[in-house]
Amino acid sequence: MGFNQKDLLGIREISAEDITTILDTAESFKEVSRRAIKKVPTLRGKTVINLFFEPSTRTRTSFEIAAKRLSADAVNISASTSSVTKGETLIDTARNLEAMGPDAIVIRHPSPGAPHQLARLIGASVINGGDGAHEHPTQALLDAFTIRGHKAGFAGLQVAIIGDIAHSRVARSNVHLLTKMGAHVRVAGPRTLIPPYYEQITGESEGSLTVCDSVDDALSSADVVMMLRIQRERMTAAFFPSLKEYSIQYGLTLRRLRLAAPDCIVLHPGPINRGVEISSEVVDSASSLILDQVTNGVAVRMAILFLLVEREGH
C-alpha cells in the first residue's frame, strides 16, 4: 500500500501520496457498510482504545463502528470515567494503557500536541481524534473523501472555508490537505476569528491559501463550501457582537450560496447550529453533503485503522 506511518497525528506530517493511499483504501471499505452483514475479519484479535478527554458524538462513535466492522475489539474511555479525575497524568494513563497491549489508541484532548506526546511514549499506533485548536486529521480526510466522490479531482478546485477559523482544528487540517492536493482555498469570517499571517501556515504546496475580506468574495464561484461551527466553548473573549449579528454577516443562506458555482457542494463538520452559521434551507438542500460526510467517516476511519494496525511488522 505504500503507507508506513506508525501514527496519524496530523495532515501536516503526511504526504499527498499518503493521503491518496488512505482515500483509495477507504473506497474499498465503503462497500462493507452496504452489506447485509457489515463486518470483515481484517483486524480480528486487535484492540482499539478510544480515549476521549472532550465530548464527541460523531468521531468517537464512527471510530467504534469502524473498529467493530473490522472485527477489532473497541474500548471507550472518557475523561469523566478515567483515573484522570483522580489526578493521574496523561503520561501515566498512557503507560497503563500500553501495559494492557492495545494495538491503536484514538485520542481527543483539549491540549494541542497531546497525541504527539502519547505517540512518543507508547508502541501502539496513535490516532489524533482532535487536539485543541491544532488539528483533526481524520475529519479532513473524510471531507476529502466526500469531495473526491463528487468532483473530478482536487487540482484547481476552489474551496471556501467560512467561520471560526481561529479555533478550528478542522479548518487547519483541511487547509493542509487541500493545498497539498492542489486546491485553492479561500477562508473568511470575522477578522477577530482569523489569526494573523494565516496564509503562511501551508508553506510550499501545490495549491494556495487566501484570506478574503468578505464571505461573498470567498464564495464567488466556489466548487466546495465548508462552513464551520462557532466554538463558544473555546472562546475567552467577545469576538463578535451576537449570534444574530454573526448569522446576518457570515451565515450561509440560499441567497449567498448562489454566488458559488452551480454544482457547488456544501460541507459542515458538525454539530450544526441551524440558523447561525448555516440556514436550515441550505442544510436540507440538494447541495448539502453533511450526512454523506458522516457516512464516509466510517469508511475513512476503517481505512486508517487498517493501514496503521496492519502495517508491516506491527
- Return the string of H and E elements: HEHEHEHEHEHEEHEHHEHH
CATH superfamily of the largest domain: Aspartate/ornithine carbamoyltransferase
In terms of per-residue confidence, which ranges show pLDDT below 50 for 5 or more consecutive residues?
none
Number of domains: 2
CATH topology group of the largest domain: Rossmann fold
Record the strand order, biggest sheet: 7-6-5-8-9
CATH class of the largest domain: Alpha Beta
Backbone structural class? alpha/beta
CATH architecture of the largest domain: 3-Layer(aba) Sandwich
Largest sheet: 5 strands, parallel
Instruction: State the total count of DSSP E strands.
Output: 9
The end-to-end span amounts to 15 Å
Overall helicity: 25-40%
- What form results from the Cα inertia axes? globular
* Average pLDDT reading: 91
Count of helices?
Answer: 11
* CA-based gyration radius: 19 Å
Tell me the fraction of residues in β-strands, as a range.
5-15%
Task: Provide a descriptive summary of the structure in words.
The chain has 314 residues and is of the alpha/beta class. It folds into two domains: 132 residues, Aspartate/ornithine carbamoyltransferase (Rossmann fold, 3-Layer(aba) Sandwich); 138 residues, Aspartate/ornithine carbamoyltransferase (Rossmann fold, 3-Layer(aba) Sandwich). It is built from eleven helices and nine strands. It has a five-stranded parallel beta sheet. Strands 2-1-3-4 form a four-stranded parallel beta sheet, with helices on both faces. Strand 1, helix 2 and strand 2 form a beta-alpha-beta unit. The two termini are 15 Å apart.
